[in-house]
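Note to self: keep these together.
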Amino acid sequence: MVLRLGQRVPDFALPDADRKVRTLGELTGEGPLLIAFFPFAFSGTCDREMCTFRDGFGQLQTSGVRMVGVSVDSSFSLRAFAQTYNLPFPLLSDFNKKVTKLYGVLQDPWVGLGYRGVAKRSVFLVDRKGVLRYRWVTDIPSEEPPYQEVVKAVQKLAS
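Structure:
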């Protein structure tokens, strides 16, 4: 399934790093939501990506956008990851890969390393009604999102 701009995104309910279940409706209830899927906690590119979002988080919040990171890591791994890098946004565990499949970003197999089923690095910007307003997906695990493009999409949605 490939999500298209202007389409409602699938609802979800996933545990965060503290094992509290978060839903799309709850997260978009306070405004637009940036969803960043990433393959693995504690892997070089994922560390850089989440830290880059952390460092620009104030700019996202100023625009009224909330953010979550999603990976197939366990809640326990995500808690350690969030604490290590002082991440100010929730990380959600899609351990069973259900949401990753729903959003069309399950990579299986992954880069010839024998891993089965991780999230493709991807970014979705969803408005408060659950409609997709920006989408970026890569099949190259070492490729980081176009951060300035993401910021522009956030600013456009906020204006």
